[in-house]
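Quick one:
INPUT:
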């Protein structure tokens, strides 16, 4: 599997566990994800570089977000507005009107 996809999957898993406040300690989380602690710290640093407000909460013994955020990575279908569809259509709608006239 592609290295980038593996990292994205790990970040998605970490994000899910952070939302549940169920990461455990860094050592426990690294073991859970089958990565080294150094790799885990690099992943957390990458998340921070991407804007994730990640911090470790001693009280919960878990990583947490200090602010509400969403993480989404991938391609999603977007429904086009009528105007956007006209632009994509390239004017063929008008051609159909002329042909049926």
């Amino acid at each position: 599997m592609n290295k980038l996809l593996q990292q994205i999957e790990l970040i998605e898993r970490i994000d899910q566990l952070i939302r549940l406040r169920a990461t455990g300690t860094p050592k426990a989380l690294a073991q859970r994800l089958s990565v080294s602690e150094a790799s885990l710290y690099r992943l957390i640093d990458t998340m921070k570089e991407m804007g994730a407000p990640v911090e470790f909460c001693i009280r919960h013994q878990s990583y947490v977000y200090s602010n509400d955020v969403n993480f989404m990575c991938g391609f999603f279908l977007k429904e086009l507005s009528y105007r956007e569809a006209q632009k994509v259509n390239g004017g063929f709608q008008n051609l159909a009107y002329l042909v049926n006239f």
